[in-house]
Specification:
about 240 residues; alpha+beta; 4-stranded antiparallel sheet; 6 helices; 9 strands; globular; tRNA binding; tRNA processing; ExoRNase_PH_dom1; RNA-binding; EC 2.7.7.56
Length: about 240
């Protein structure tokens, strides 16, 4: 494939992340918070600690991690109706909330957390693709800060980040923005740990089935991309 054919709309190389920045302490009242920017996508992630657990966990000596996700009405090109006005979250919102919660529970020893609930709220301020991945990456930072504040850092068992990869006209590419995501032949989301673990992989062929060799190329790109996200997380925690 020629260099011209592999050119991405953003001009990035196939294995190049969007510019990432993470700002902590943005929400002053939360036990932990992180404003993450991934290219044009911006998500405010906050961690709230409550000294109680859901009824099904009472008196079991362990905690719980849950998550909520939402988009501001003008986070996208056209105004979206607030889901509160509809009376219930959409199926997409519920699916993303569950993904974020699963990803964060996978990196916490709930026994060491004690009978506490930590809620991760991920609010999308601006959307340009990859909002669920940015939410997971930012929520992990907010969670780490909250655990340190309540002196439960030992409950954190892994470092987690997420990134999207896809098959486009430019071939296999890392960290899709909206233009690429909306026309991708295949779209995948990888939730990985810094020690090489896999928490979740979501993948969908939009046009035709993709091959095993293509999947492993996407996984290779995801490992490169999350390695850079882990560096960004570590840097902000060291300087917070």
């Amino acid at each position: 494939m020629t260099d011209t054919a592999r050119k991405r709309p953003s001009g990035r190389a196939p294995d190049e992340n969007r510019i990432v920045s993470i700002e902590t302490g943005f929400a002053r009242h939360a036990e932990g918070s992180a404003l993450i920017r991934v290219g044009g996508t911006e998500v405010l992630c906050t961690a709230t600690v409550e000294e109680r657990v859901p009824a099904f966990l009472r008196n079991r000596g362990q905690g719980w991690i849950t998550a909520e996700y939402g988009m501001l009405p003008r986070a996208t090109h056209n105004r979206g109706q607030r889901e509160a006005a509809k009376g219930k979250p959409s199926g997409r919102t519920q699916e993303i909330q569950r993904l974020i919660a699963r990803s964060l529970r996978a990196c916490v020893d709930l026994k060491k957390l004690g009978e506490r609930t930590i809620t991760l709220d991920c609010d999308v301020l601006n959307a340009d693709g990859g909002t669920r991945c940015a939410s997971i990456t930012g929520a992990w930072v907010a969670l780490a800060i909250a655990l340190k504040k309540i002196k439960r850092s030992q409950a954190l068992t892994a470092q987690v980040a997420a990134v999207s990869c896809g098959l486009t006209e430019a071939g296999a590419v890392l960290d899709l923005d909206y233009i690429e995501d909306s026309s991708a032949q295949a779209d995948t989301n990888f939730v990985l740990t810094a020690d090489g673990g896999i928490i979740e992989i979501q993948g969908t062929a939009e046009d035709k089935p993709f091959q095993e060799s293509e999947f492993f190329e996407l996984l290779r790109l995801a490992k490169l991309g999350t390695a850079r996200l882990f560096d960004a997380q570590n840097h902000v925690l060291e300087t917070a």
